[in-house]
Amino acid sequence: MLDLDALKARYRELAGEEPEGLWFAPGRVNLIGEHTDYNDGFVLPFALDKMAVIAGGRRDDDQLVFISLELGDEIWTPVSELEPGTQGWHSYLAGVVWALREAGHDVGGANLVMTSDVPLGAGLSSSAAIECATVATLADLYGLDIDPMERAKIARVAENAYVGAPTGLLDQAASTLCQADHGLFLDCRTLETEHVPLPMAEQGYEMLVLDTKTPHSHVDGEYGTRRATCEAAAEKLGVPALRDVTDLDAALSQLDDETMVKRVRHVVTENERVLKAFDLARTADLSELAPLLDASHASMRDDYEITVPTVDLAVDTAKASGALGARMTGGGFGGCIIALTRAGEAERIGQDIADAFDEAGFGEPVWFTVTPAPGAGRLA
Ligand code: ADP
Ligand code: MG
Fold first, then answer.
1. Residues of CATH 3.30.230.10 domain(s) within the chain?
2. Of 19, 16, 41, 22, whose CA–CA distance to 30 is shortest?
3. 54, 127, 132: which to mutate for ligand 1, most atoms within 8 A of CB?
4. How far away, in angstroms, is 95 Cα from ligand 2 center?
5. pLDDT digits (tens, 9 = 90+) for 317-352
6. Candidates 3.30.230.10, 3.40.50.150, 3.40.50.10470, 3.40.640.10; correct CATH number of 4-196+374-378?
7. How far is the CA of 126 from the centre of ligand 2 (A)?
8. pTM score, two decimals?
9. Is 171 noted as a catalytic residue in this protein?
């Protein structure tokens, strides 16, 4: 739970006055569209009702002061000494100041006191939440006129160039652009977006998010090989990216490597599923999305081979316990699953998964229900 009184008290302790304002940005889950982003494809995330909140104010001494209530640190850095590649959690925030200045925005010193209830490192994008909250804070404090997509891009530059994590735009776009009760359809090639209605509560559904708490071992290497295989396949097929494969059977018949066949089949069918989900959400009952979630999971398990036993057990148990559809969400090798359930059932299904984990000798998962929430903005 976010404690905004504690946040403001910590700000007052630091600055000796009230913050100039409070700004927030949420974490996100990806409803569907996994490993499609670097193939120039489609994704459909929505923002969580879990968020980072920053109490912010300007300073006139060129200093940046970063405080995280979660980590308890207080870190001082002069604006003139920002250096890409700096280690530590504050580099996500410092990177935003650096990226803003690189983009020509006049940003000076600031007190940035932060708290967040997005779980760290669970694949729910706690990093984008703190970056996008920082963009929102500094844009208002320094009167910068930056449109939402540009804000997302600046947050991404912070993560890619300053922190040094090679991520796509999905996380920052979701954290910045999302609307309440909507998903965000994003075309990763053109960066066109469209808000897609996800009226879960209104239609009598809930979305369970369950963190398997599985440590992500070898995840960077596995990500790299998946990416390289996709690039090699696109080259073999003579297309700029796998997004451009229009006839899957014809494409697969041109490939002789069994692994490559599976990877291509996942990416192409996953893109099709995102487009289907996009169409269905606009017109149909959300329960019709459920088979797409199931198919996405099977494809990640069998073709892209990025699931692990905890994740598969969580999804199988969710389904056996009455979830309408379920899938792993995020890059894979652990992390979270999502399950679409009838209203009132998510909590019990989460408990059933925890019981199954206990029986299998796996660690304890953490779970909660989520409602599609709005992207970054000012809180007070
Ligand atoms: P994810 O984005 O999936 O949560 P990442 O590894 O991309 O995982 O980002 C997690 C990192 O973001 C943490 O290790 C920490 O450096 C930083 N971070 C996120 N939330 C906070 C917070 N509340 N306080 C300090 N640092 C945070
Ligand atoms: Mg992250």
1. 4-196+374-378
2. 41
3. 127
4. 14
5. 999 999 999 999 998 999 999 999 999 999 999 999
6. 3.30.230.10
7. 6
8. 0.96
9. yes
